[in-house]
Amino acid sequence: MSLRAVLTGCGAMSAGWIDAAKQIPGLSIAGFVDLDPRRAQAAAASWGGNAQTGADAVAMIDALRPDILFDVAVPMARHTLVAQALSRGCHVLTEKPMAETMAQAADLLARAKAAGRIHAVIQNRRYIAPIRRIRRLLASGVLGRVTSLHCDFFLGPHFGGFREDMRHVLLLDMAIHTFDAARCLSGQDAEAVYCREWNPPGSWFAHESSAAAIFELTDGAVFTYRGSWVAQGLGTSWESAWRIVGERGSLVWDGHDDIRAEIVGPPRSHLFDTAQSVEIPPRDAEDRIDGHLGVMRDFVAAIEGGLQPETRGEDNIKSFAMVMAAIRSAESGMRVAVDV
Ligand SMILES: NC(=O)c1ccc[n+]([C@@H]2O[C@H](COP(=O)([O-])OP(=O)(O)OC[C@H]3O[C@@H](n4cnc5c(N)ncnc54)[C@H](O)[C@@H]3O)[C@@H](O)[C@H]2O)c1
């Protein structure tokens, strides 16, 4: 099937989208839109061919009548862009976070349903091999029931741009990936959260750039998150450093390639049991991987009549709800229910 897309938001992230789109047979990007015409032109040039450029997404959609909107714009523009594209019959693949508020997210889901269009989110950090391998190990039951997941995220990036003025920037712009990964790994959703946010002295962000959160998950497990974007030195992976505890063993993942698991063996002393290491399942040909490209492939396959993508808005809203509940908890100082 041949599919035509318009891409809005030709900033830093758009290069990854363009690269992914080039690898999908039958998919073309017919128009590039950015408020800054030079960015739209540069993106079109990197795509090649004779794509159009402009500053108005609606005008471009009306002119080109594409099958798809690729939304890579800043989060503040998201609801308007996605709503307009859905109302014009486009399928939409959108960057995270899927909206700025729960009301906006719910509105976009309702619009996609009413229009009968696929609406999915680039939650690309669940499309990586370690996540899939760990998920398979946990699902095998070898560690027993998962009782807690813990992760640390500590980096000190100087992005410039919209992030440095954004409220709740760590939770909204980054922790969404980690919270989504916790759902993906555990197979559990979140029911409630207690969260504290702060902006450390010396921060180059205008607002809260560090956070600690404790989530209660649906099957009784606890998920704890500690994160900061103002942490110089000893940086973690962008995927976080993880420890997952089950009834019969534990798993640690450094967020890169080092995954280790141990399960309980015979007693060693009155104090401790022995532990024996467990092999981590290798990659499987069916694993959903390849980051942006993997998400985009599943989105296109869904348009062509395949399964609904894993990151469809209806599912992704459960990860977004974790972020929004964490923000409400941080603002109120209270434990807050995670409502979808
Ligand atoms: N999935 C990931 O791993 C990942 C990584 C980085 C960024 N992102 C997300 O991608 C999105 C963009 O981030 P970025 O780093 O490329 O930001 P950026 O600031 O570099 O680029 C955003 C672009 O959107 C344009 N824009 C703003 N309003 C617009 C509108 N109404 N119509 C068209 N263009 C508009 C801006 O002019 C800018 O060029 C954000 O939602 C961000 O969270 C995701």
Automatic annotation (TrEMBL):
Listed GO MF terms: nucleotide binding
One Pfam family this sequence matches: GFO_IDH_MocA_C3
Gene3D superfamilies the record matches: Dihydrodipicolinate Reductase, domain 2, NAD(P)-binding Rossmann-like Domain
Matches recorded under InterPro entries: Gfo/Idh/MocA-like_OxRdtase_N, Gfo/Idh/MocA_oxidoreduct, GFO_IDH_MocA-like_dom, NAD(P)-bd_dom_sf
Domain named GFO/IDH/MocA-like oxidoreductase: residues: 131-251
SUPFAM superfamilies: Glyceraldehyde-3-phosphate dehydrogenase-like, C-terminal domain (SSF55347), NAD(P)-binding Rossmann-fold domains (SSF51735)
Domain Gfo/Idh/MocA-like oxidoreductase N-terminal: 4-121
Protein name: Gfo/Idh/MocA family oxidoreductase
Organism name: Acidisoma cellulosilyticum
Lineage, top ranks: Bacteria, Pseudomonadati, Pseudomonadota, Alphaproteobacteria, Acetobacterales
